[in-house]
Automatic annotation (TrEMBL):
<keyword id="KW-0812">Transmembrane</keyword>
<protein>
    <submittedName>
        <fullName>Hexose transporter 2</fullName>
    </submittedName>
</protein>
<feature type="compositionally biased region" description="Polar residues">
    <location>
        <begin position="25"/>
        <end position="35"/>
    </location>
</feature>
<comment type="similarity">
    <text>Belongs to the major facilitator superfamily. Sugar transporter (TC 2.A.1.1) family.</text>
</comment>
<feature type="region of interest" description="Disordered">
    <location>
        <begin position="14"/>
        <end position="36"/>
    </location>
</feature>
<feature type="transmembrane region" description="Helical">
    <location>
        <begin position="460"/>
        <end position="481"/>
    </location>
</feature>
<keyword id="KW-0813">Transport</keyword>
<keyword id="KW-1133">Transmembrane helix</keyword>
<dbReference type="GO" id="GO:0005351">
    <property type="term" value="F:carbohydrate:proton symporter activity"/>
</dbReference>
<feature type="transmembrane region" description="Helical">
    <location>
        <begin position="396"/>
        <end position="419"/>
    </location>
</feature>
<keyword id="KW-0472">Membrane</keyword>
<dbReference type="InterPro" id="IPR050360">
    <property type="entry name" value="MFS_Sugar_Transporters"/>
</dbReference>
<dbReference type="InterPro" id="IPR036259">
    <property type="entry name" value="MFS_trans_sf"/>
</dbReference>
<feature type="transmembrane region" description="Helical">
    <location>
        <begin position="227"/>
        <end position="244"/>
    </location>
</feature>
<dbReference type="InterPro" id="IPR020846">
    <property type="entry name" value="MFS_dom"/>
</dbReference>
<feature type="transmembrane region" description="Helical">
    <location>
        <begin position="431"/>
        <end position="454"/>
    </location>
</feature>
<feature type="transmembrane region" description="Helical">
    <location>
        <begin position="99"/>
        <end position="119"/>
    </location>
</feature>
Length: 561
């Protein structure tokens, strides 16, 4: 695989057949779902700096983030349930859980999410981001009902977790997608990262509710109250999101240009649906879409074939898996149990402390995403000492765990969502995001299922596995993740297509592309125009050139950008 190779140059196919439709930039459009009459008149090269975002943009992002709260709440509650007397009596064997039973109850949520997020990519493209979010939230309630009504059968409870997981998984793809496609670039990183903040708040809230109900009740209300509350968050999200506008990028792709313009205008201060800022955004989206459509029919599996997309698909999968391989969930799922075993008397309180550190550090993480970018701080935090290898008194373990969680929550927690939300081009975004998110859930599942088996055998040395992974992740981030802070999604795509080396990416400017802007620099045309897998690329006169004899036989000579 070629990572950011300069050789995968920009391709500009020459005209083939039919008379091209003139667009404001002189780009050509074929097969467009948007008729020529609908094509927007666009101001060229206007000086358009990005205005500040409005409250509407923040509210839109925040409401979608409730999906993160549901994710955190559902995953955070299980740690406490495993210690509750009524839960143990009902679902354990002689008041205890075997490794298989405990692992299954914890991990079946992740198995469901894995399926849910893979299925949701296609649904997002069919019914839209907003309706997918709403439908997933309501579907999740079915899982909650199965869980809460479980009486003595642990399998029923575990199947409820699986069903709830389908909804949570679908949300974990559709929410970051909706956010990153909608909010203006300046706050995009922080808004998508706020999905992670809400995950941490969800975990924290679950700990607090568990703490109260475990002390207040001795019957099934101990776990049924926190469990049943999950449905409330789903109702709030499923309903509120319907009052939000659809992602403008999705609306544009469906030919609803005026709707896309109106939404974009609402999201920045002083924005006008036909003003220069929105014009520029629409121009970028339009150029990319036209270039994509020039490529003809495309299939989802191309995400593993087209070099610049394959790079991003693998990068997203590795980063999402890496987030889990830091080992954070060992504490969030088994925290209560671990601290009990070190002699700490009230392990619920310890979990609440860790949950609070997680929330506060994630707030700092949002600031870092917004102000320091994606590359500056992140790799170094991979080196934070892994606490699991610290066998010792409870206090020492807590201290190291807090350092670890701070490092995780300021970097790996929020940044992975921000990056995967913004690196994919429109055509492949839902497929790539679904697969990247599935990789998070796959490793989440593996870690949560096998943890008890592994710690039963190697005890605290388990931490060394995570420490080794985070060491490797440092190099992956440093060498393969480009800086995408404050760039539009279309600009980021161009950066990948051009193969800007990640270490130089922070200094790269879109103006370097030349007077034609992004025209012609699109993933589809470049690497994989309609089965043109054997597309030829050449360089000459300092320009990137290409000719594809298969696609454009009448044009034997290379064209230049
Ligand atoms: O904050 C910790 C939580 O964040 C996640 O890694 C998701 O980004 C979860 O898997 C974990 O429970």
């Amino acid at each position: 695989m070629r990572f950011f190779g300069r050789k995968d140059a920009v391709a500009v196919p020459a005209e083939k057949d039919g008379s091209p439709i003139d667009t404001p930039l002189g780009t050509t459009a074929r097969n467009s779902s948007i008729s020529p009459a609908e094509k927007p008149a666009i101001v060229q090269n206007a000086d358009v700096s990005e205005p500040p975002a409005t409250w509407e943009a923040v509210i839109m992002g925040a409401i979608a983030s409730i999906g993160g709260f549901m994710f955190g709440y559902e995953s955070g509650q299980i740690s406490g349930f495993l210690q509750m007397s009524d839960f143990l009596d009902r679902f354990g064997k002689n008041g205890e859980f075997s490794a298989v039973r405990q692992g299954s109850i914890v991990a079946l949520l992740c198995a469901g999410t894995l399926v849910g997020c893979l299925a949701s990519g296609d649904i997002c493209d069919r019914i839209g981001r907003r309706y997918t979010i709403s439908a997933s939230a309501f579907f999740y309630i079915i899982g909650v009902i199965i869980e809460t009504t479980s009486d003595k059968e642990w399998v029923q409870f575990a199947m409820g977790r699986f069903t709830a997981g389908l909804g949570i998984g679908a949300l974990s793809t559709s929410v970051p997608m909706y956010q990153s496609e909608s909010v203006p670039p300046k706050i995009r990183g922080a808004i998508v990262a706020s999905y992670q903040l809400l995950i941490t708040l969800g975990i924290w809230t679950a700990y607090m509710v568990n703490y109260r109900t475990s002390a207040a009740y001795s019957n099934s209300a101990q776990w049924r109250i926190p469990n049943g509350l999950s449905a409330l968050w789903a109702i709030i999200l499923g309903t509120a999101i319907l009052f939000m506008p659809e992602s403008p990028r999705f609306a544009y792709r469906k030919g609803k240009i005026e709707e896309a313009r109106r939404t974009m205008a609402k999201l920045v201060k002083g924005g006008e649906a036909h003003g220069p800022y929105v014009d520029r955004q629409i121009r970028e989206i339009q150029e990319k879409q036209e270039a994509e459509e020039d490529g003809g029919e495309h299939h989802w599996w191309e995400i593993f074939v087209i070099p610049s997309i394959r790079y991003r698909t693998i990068l997203g999968m590795v980063l999402q898996a890496g987030q889990q391989l830091t080992g954070a969930n060992f504490f969030f799922y088994y925290g209560t149990t671990i601290f009990l075993s070190t002699g700490i008397s009230n392990s619920y309180i310890t979990s609440i402390i860790l949950g609070s550190v997680n929330v506060l550090a994630t707030i700092a993480g949002l600031w870092i995403v917004k102000n320091c970018g994606r590359r500056l701080f992140w790799p170094f935090c991979s080196f934070a000492t892994d606490p699991l290898s610290t066998k010792g008194a409870g206090g020492v373990l807590i201290a190291f765990t807090c350092i670890f969680i701070t490092a995780f929550a300021t970097t790996w927690g929020p940044l992975v969502w921000a990056i995967t939300g913004e690196i994919y081009p429109a055509r492949y975004r839902s497929a790539c995001l679904a697969i990247a998110t599935a990789s998070n859930w796959l490793f989440n599942f593996l870690i949560s299922f096998f943890t008890t088996f592994i710690t039963d055998k190697i005890d605290y040395f388990y931490g060394l596995v995570f420490a080794g992974c985070t060491f490797a992740l440092f190099f992956i981030v440093y060498f393969f993740v480009p800086e995408s802070k404050d760039r539009s999604m279309e600009e980021i795509d161009t950066m990948f297509v051009l193969g800007i080396p990640p270490r130089k990416s922070a200094a790269w400017k879109i103006e370097d592309v030349g007077p034609e802007g992004m025209s012609g620099i699109a993933t589809d045309k470049t690497h994989f125009a309609a089965n043109g897998r054997d597309i030829k690329k050449q360089e000459g006169n300092g320009n990137l050139m290409v000719h594809d004899e298969k696609l454009y036989p009448e044009n034997a000579g290379p064209s230049t950008v």
